[in-house]
């Protein structure tokens, strides 16, 4: 299978059944007005392992459930990757435990060790209480961790899903930016991100946009500055997120675009389920605006 960006929608079996059996959350009086409430979160799940290094999906599912989020962006997600995550489809397993739909966007998709087994994949994912209408795995600049002598090059793993939240179109992007001290690759990734989000916004006028992820840089980092021209950092002023046991820097973000009002945001005190802490934001989506009448 090619590693080039491709459009796809991946639903776990549980999510697919829910699509048939369960309607989207009921609309409230507020939904019928000028705005729609939504709860959005991001969480780097460390391939299913906690800050103690122990793989425990039950513990992570409990942490995710406690967020009570409608949409969650996940980073460091294994799908049949190997022994560290017991060869499981971690994205699908978490979706099943939470009763949510899932879209997975691999950064790496490698041949299996043994012929006939599933491909070994690692990347980002979106969990959603709402049906996923479409999903795309975009390419951005990356410096591969799987090549002996990597050079920056376009590679997949910048996931996007399109939702309709009580009549409002929503584009959710999830990313994991480069971790290296040299910001050069992150600078290129930010430029790619802005270009892709602008193009997708033009293709669906009026869509409310979210960028969720582990940016591996603090809010004041110069390489992130261009992002804040179109997006707002919902978590400004919140506690640090990494490392989870005793955080010293804020590198995990819920960023929102035009037509999204941030009502509340929190960094839950979750020191054990991953090596990062999650971020969760209560927002409202404007019904009126460009392309929405």
Portion in strands: 25-35%
Q: What is the oligomer described by this structure?
A: single chain
* Count of individual beta strands: 13
Distance between the termini: 42 Å
Q: Tell me the helix content.
A: 10-25%
Structure description:
By secondary structure, the protein is of the alpha+beta class. The protein is 17% helix and 34% strand. It has 4 helices and 13 strands. It has helices spanning 13-21, 57-67, 90-98, 184-203; strands at 6-7, 35-44, 71-79, 101-110, 120-128, 134-142, 153-165, 168-176, 208-214, 232-233, 252-256, 260-266, 279-286. The strands form 2 sheets. It has a 7-stranded mixed sheet with strand order 1-6-7-8-9-11-10. Helix 2 packs across helix 3. The longest helix has 20 residues, at 184-203. The chain is globular and about 55 Å long. The model is unreliable at 1-24 and 27-31 (pLDDT under 50).
Write the topology of this structure.
Elements: E1 6-7, H1 13-21, E2 35-44, H2 57-67, E3 71-79, H3 90-98, E4 101-110, E5 120-128, E6 134-142, E7 153-165, E8 168-176, H4 184-203, E9 208-214, E10 232-233, E11 252-256, E12 260-266, E13 279-286
Parallel strand pairs: 2-3, 8-9
Antiparallel strand pairs: 1-6, 2-13, 3-5, 4-5, 6-7, 7-8, 9-11, 10-11, 12-13
Please provide a brief summary of the model.
Keywords: Endonuclease, Hydrolase, Nuclease, Signal. The protein has helices at residues 13-21, 57-67, 90-98, 184-203, and strands at 6-7, 35-44, 71-79, 101-110, 120-128, 134-142, 153-165, 168-176, 208-214, 232-233, 252-256, 260-266, 279-286.
């Amino acid at each position: 299978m090619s590693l080039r960006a491709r459009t796809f929608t991946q639903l776990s079996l549980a999510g697919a059944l829910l699509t048939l059996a369960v309607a989207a959350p009921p609309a409230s009086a507020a939904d019928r007005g000028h705005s729609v409430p939504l709860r959005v979160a991001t969480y780097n799940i460390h391939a299913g392992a906690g800050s103690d290094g122990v793989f425990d999906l039950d513990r992570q599912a409990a942490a995710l459930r406690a967020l009570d989020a409608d949409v969650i962006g996940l980073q460091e997600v294994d799908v049949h990757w190997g022994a560290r995550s017991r060869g499981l489809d971690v994205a699908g397993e978490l979706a099943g435990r939470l009763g949510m739909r899932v879209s997975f966007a691999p950064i790496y998709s490698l041949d299996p060790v043994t012929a006939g087994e599933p491909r070994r994949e690692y990347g980002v994912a979106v969990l959603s209480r709402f049906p996923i209408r479409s999903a795309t795995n975009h390419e951005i600049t990356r410096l591969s961790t799987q090549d002996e002598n990597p050079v920056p090059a376009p590679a997949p793993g910048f996931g996007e899903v399109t939702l309709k939240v009580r009549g409002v179109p929503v584009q959710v992007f999830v990313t994991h930016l480069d971790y290296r001290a040299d910001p050069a690759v992150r600078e290129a990734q930010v430029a790619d991100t802005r270009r892709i989000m602008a193009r997708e916004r033009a293709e669906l006028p009026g869509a409310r946009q979210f960028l969720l992820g582990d940016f591996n840089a603090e809010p004041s980092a110069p390489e992130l500055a261009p992002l804040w021209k179109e997006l707002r950092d919902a978590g400004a002023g919140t506690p640090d997120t990494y490392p989870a046991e005793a955080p010293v820097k804020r590198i995990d973000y819920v960023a929102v675009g035009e037509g999204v009002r941030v009502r509340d945001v929190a960094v839950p005190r979750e020191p054990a389920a991953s090596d990062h802490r999650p971020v969760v934001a209560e927002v409202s989506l404007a019904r009126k605006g460009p392309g929405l009448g």
